[in-house]
């Protein structure tokens, strides 16, 4: 198959690319390298450096590569930045994605796999683990923008016969996650502790999330190449883990003696969410 992975130079997307290449697919990556890294891109994949908000760039890429499947990982992923500048977030996550959908339609793409979010979509968990039927009440512009594309996908299938599978990720962790980023508590804490620095916790550390290893996310993307058409599916462990739990585990694994620093909670973050996959 010819598969275009947007955001394929990023943490999760680059692992998905590796898996598709290993399976013998022909893979192209569209990425502006804003947070992704050239060296993460599998050498057997074709890298097209471009910005999703540039509709000409994405059109050229799809027209030339002619993918059968688009696996969409490129996004503005910073929840705090989305709170500060919702329009910037929407430009990439909604308008950029719409430009991509337009190109998919014009060039006969068969299927669209979408890396959505379960962690930022349901809002405060009313029942846990949250199923796909849980009410959708995003508490950040990021959650709103990520969810908006799901509506377009549902509609695009009806209007233009583009099949889709939406994968709602929980908090993903693993190699290549940025330890200097705004999200990805495991990578950030490991990075700090390895440098002998105390991890900073926003709030009381009792916020609960669902942490999933990146290889499991990759497996879901592999399955979505042939299954899950027209479905919106949670990925997750069904187990909630608190930030304090993570600090305790990492302290013991890394033999780190210091204590965490506690700071003010951040706006736009829910207290408890974990997902029924
Ligand atoms: N990491 C998580 O826990 C998590 C949870 C839920 C959903 N997701 C989703 O998974 C996807 C990948 O996230 P990640 O954690 O690997 O983040 P990441 O930042 O490592 O990957 C995003 C990639 O998209 C690229 N990108 C960003 N804006 C772009 C633009 N305008 N044009 C082209 N490329 C652009 C970046 O350079 C990067 O390579 C995102 O869509 C994110 O919303 C991630």
What would you give as the CATH superfamily of the largest domain? NAD(P)-binding Rossmann-like Domain
- Secondary-structure element series: EHEEHEHHEHEEHEEEHEEHE
Shape: globular
Bound molecules: nicotinamide-adenine-dinucleotide
The whole-angstrom Rg is: 18 Å
Low-confidence stretches: none
CATH C-level name of the largest domain: Alpha Beta
What would CATH call the architecture of the largest domain?
A: 3-Layer(aba) Sandwich
Task: Tell me the layout of helices and strands.
Blueprint: E1 2-6, H1 11-22, E2 26-31, E3 46-49, H2 55-65, E4 69-72, H3 79-84, H4 86-106, E5 111-117, H5 141-160, E6 163-169, E7 171-173, H6 185-194, E8 200-202, E9 208-209, E10 211-213, H7 214-224, E11 231-234, E12 241-242, H8 243-254, E13 261-263
Parallel strand pairs: 1-2, 1-4, 2-3, 4-5, 5-6, 6-11, 7-10, 8-13
Antiparallel strand pairs: 9-12
Helix pairs in contact: 1-7, 2-4, 4-5, 6-8
Bound molecules: nicotinamide-adenine-dinucleotide (NAD).
């Amino acid at each position: 198959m010819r598969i275009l992975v947007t955001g394929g130079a990023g943490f999760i997307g680059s692992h998905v690319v590796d898996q598709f290449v290993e399976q013998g697919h022909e893979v192209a990556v569209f990425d502006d390298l804003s947070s992704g890294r050239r060296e993460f891109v599998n050498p057997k994949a074709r890298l097209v450096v471009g910005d999703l908000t540039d509709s000409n760039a994405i059109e050229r890429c799809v027209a030339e590569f002619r993918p059968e499947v688009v696996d969409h990982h490129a996004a503005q992923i910073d929840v705090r930045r989305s709170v500060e500048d919702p329009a910037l977030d929407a430009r990439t996550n909604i308008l950029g994605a719409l430009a991509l959908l337009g190109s998919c339609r014009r060039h006969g793409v068969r299927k669209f796999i979408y890396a959505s979010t379960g962690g930022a979509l349901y809002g405060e968990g009313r029942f846990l683990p949250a199923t796909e039927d849980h009410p959708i009440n995003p508490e950040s512009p990021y959650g709103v923008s990520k969810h908006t594309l799901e509506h377009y996908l549902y509609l695009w299938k009806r209007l233009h016969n583009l099949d889709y599978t939406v994968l709602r990720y929980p908090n993903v962790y693993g190699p290549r996650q940025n330890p200097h980023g705004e999200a990805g508590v495991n990578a950030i804490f490991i990075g700090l502790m390895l440098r002998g620095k105390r991890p900073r916790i926003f709030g009381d550390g009792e916020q609960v999330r669902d942490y999933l290893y990146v290889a499991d996310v990759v497996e879901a993307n592999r399955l979505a190449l042939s299954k899950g058409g027209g479905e919106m599916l949670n990925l997750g462990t069904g187990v909630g883990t608190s930030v304090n739990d993570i600090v305790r585990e990492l302290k013991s694994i890394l033999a780190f003696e210091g204590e965490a620093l506690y700071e003010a909670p951040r706006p736009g973050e829910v207290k408890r969410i974990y997902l029924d996959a």
